[in-house]
Design brief:
The complex is a heterodimer.
Chain A: H1 8-29, H2 34-61, E1 68-72, E2 83-87, H3 88-110, H4 118-137, H5 141-160, H6 165-196, H7 201-209, H8 211-214, H9 220-236, H10 245-251, H11 254-279, E3 287-291, E4 296-300, H12 304-327, H13 332-356, H14 360-395, H15 406-409, H16 411-425, H17 431-446, H18 449-473, H19 480-483, H20 489-507, H21 509-524, H22 526-533, H23 538-545
Antiparallel strand pairs in A: 1-2, 3-4
Helix pairs in contact in A: 1-2, 1-4, 2-3, 2-4, 3-4, 3-11, 3-14, 3-20, 3-21, 4-5, 4-11, 5-6, 6-9, 6-10, 7-22, 9-11, 10-11, 10-13, 11-13, 11-14, 12-13, 12-18, 13-14, 13-17, 13-18, 14-16, 14-17, 14-20, 14-21, 16-17, 16-18, 16-20, 17-20
Chain B: H1 4-27, H2 35-53, H3 57-62, H4 77-102, E1 112-118, E2 122-127, H5 129-153
Antiparallel strand pairs in B: 1-2
Helix pairs in contact in B: 1-2, 2-5, 4-5
The chains are: A mainly alpha, B mainly alpha.
Membrane topology (chain A): Multi-pass membrane protein
Organism (chain A): Natrinema pallidum DSM 3751
Pfam families (chain A): Proton_antipo_M
Amino acid sequence: MTATPVGTASTLVIAPMLVVLVAAAGTLLLGRHPRARTAVSLAGGAGYAIAVAAIDWYIVLAPDAPGIATYQVGDLPAPFGITLVADGLSAFMLTMVAILGIASLVFSTRHLPGGEGRSYYFPLFHFLALGVTGAFLTGDLFNLFVWFEVMLMASYVFVAYSGGPQHTRAAFWYVTLNLLASAVFLLGVGGIYATTGTLNMADLAQRLAEPAAYGLDPVPVVGLLGLLLSVFAIKAGLVPFQFWIPTAYRAAPPQITALLAGATKKVGIYAIIRLSFTIFAGAEVAVDLPLPLVGVAITGDSPLPFVGAALFVMAAGSILLGGIGAVGRDSMEGVFAYSSIGQVGFIAIPVAIAATAAGPELRTFAIIAALVYALNHTLAKGLLFLAVGTVRSATGTSRFADLGGLAKRSPPLALAVFVGSLALVGIPPLSGFFGKFLVFDAAARAGSGPVLVLLLVGSLLTIAYATRLWNRSFWGARTDAVEAATVDPVQIAILVGLAVAIIAVGIGFEPVYEFAETAAEAALDTEGYVDAVDPQTASELAGSNGGGH
Amino acid sequence: MTTVIMRTTARAIVPIILVVAISLFFDGHNLPGGGFIGGVLTTTAFAIVYMGFGLDFLERGILGRDVDPGKEPSRDRVVLAYRRLFAYGFALAVASGLAPLLFGKPFLTQTFEMLEGVPIYDHLEVASALAFDFGVYCVVVGGLLTILSVVGAE
């Protein structure tokens, strides 16, 4: 077999995963030495940030960057070995997760929930990051399943981490639901393998674009994609798969909830975008789904209109249910958990618009809107969940009944939460403004009146629950818990750092937009993706082997 | 469960299970088997010992240590050893995956060497995959035994 040359750009693709793996192994070995464990953990975080920044620059953003790079694990050629692919979309997602991941990691060194499991906290943290990173980088459908499992294994433990009865109950629900989702995922993957004979994503895209050349009938793929979509919707927490979110988010330690909302949710969104647009968009399938009850007929020559219709319904449900649910909660994390459901709806709406878009221009624009909104949600919701952690470690509670007057007790904390809430609402010049603006603009360009109304209602609900949260916990008379609070300066510094990031994204929006544009173009560039991976056929391989060993 | 029948059966089958586990482990890279299956089978051997002779038997009976019967199971020295096995196994698997990078090959690349003229076996295949598999084996044995002994005690 001819050896694949391993260039710098190529090795970079796997670098973030290797860093996390080594950090996980290091923290496991150093279980009995808390100081060294923390140091290795932080070094791992820094290494991860450097690796992601290097991917961003050398593969995607530099003037002479290739735009996409691949890595064949174990020197086995695609489609037989596992392919890792870093392109604009993966890089954008990784960057988002890296920023929040570092914040959450540093936060964890200051506020580590106690108990027996403490020595496993950092290894698990790195495993969670490993799963998320792998999911963003893999170019193989089955491998995606594996990374989902890695991510879930770590998050199961985190949901049950605090060990109380309500945590165990939340974890039980979470495990049951996700086992079911994994089974459905596996069914979908198996079905796709049976239909197309491959699981390498590039090979899949290639075969679906010319089904006749490969002698396959791609029709079942639409239904199978539907199965996969439902799994990704569970991860993203879209209605009707949102019910696990409030309990799980309340049970996990707040800094992990920040990651669950900011990173693992985005894995669901990423998987929807990657599979629907990069892989399945080119499938030659006539979709004809008359829905006489609502008076719409879904027709088209690829699975995308079907995806779009399903996403519209789920996103609309999420925005309404999340918004209305958030208004009535009695604790900070309850509000933010429901808010996450609503905000994911705001991300899914432009994805749905992209899926049903008539022209490539609107499609690119809508994906940009989704990505920018996702970035804003990661930063803002990450900040807010970390703020819940700060409030909890300072006052011992995060229930509105026991809070009040926090604004005067700790002005920097209040300021950070204020910025985070305004980013959710979408006030200029914060990142949230551009997120909301682009989503509204995409809906206006698509010419969809009902969607605009829906977005408006969702935004009003956001204002309502953000205001209510502010009134209940930051204004008003100081309660005993707030009076006795001791606020950790490092935690505050992290929150302020994230708030500055939100403002910086808003003020220096131009490069962020360009990055998102590169990502959106990469998401839609099926041909470039296939060319970069260059899946071989068995006969080509036999030829290049020249008789083998 | 600690009946005479159970103990006698355990004496007979535990060695057989361990031998089968080891042979499955060595076959892994070419035939069905490998670190995971070998590890799970090894754990079942331990589980049978636990069932037949009780949770403290390993420490008291085999390792000859003194054991306080009422203490926290997760503080057992043998459980700490399982945890270390897990950590070292994981580190070994990661290191064996990283090793090819030193030779300019991608992560997890494997190779093998045929040793000719070995007594009894004639030829013996030495595969680099064995290092990774051994790491997996340790992770599985360490992880499952930790769960088994901690949960089993509760």
